[in-house]
Input
Amino acid sequence: MHELGITENIISIVLKHGEKEDAKKITKITLKIGELTQVVGDCIQFYFDQLSKDTIAENAELVIEYIPIKVRCADCGSEKEASNYDFTCPSCGAICTEFTAGREFLVDDIEVE
Output
């Protein structure tokens, strides 16, 4: 349910940006979300559709790009994408403990009229 609060923050950010640019309409918003955040895109979309009503962001296209989890081995320095939450180092077999990607959550792009 944390998606509701996240979506409220997204709308706040895009509306402030729209006001700053004297936008009549926000047409597209691109989000980058790391897999480790476990944010559900469908929930963000649902809350966005509800919360953006009667604002300049109403009916804006919401694009969500997921960033895969990437890890680095503390023992040998090898890096890999951790698909299916497999954190085993491909080089030495140790468990990779350093996350280099996958925690991100950002409004990457806002298109306005």
Q: What stands out?
A: The chain has a mean pLDDT of 95. The first strand starts at residue 26 and ends at 34. Helices lie at 2-20, 41-51. The beta strands are 26-34, 61-67, 70-72, 79-81, 98-101, 105-112.
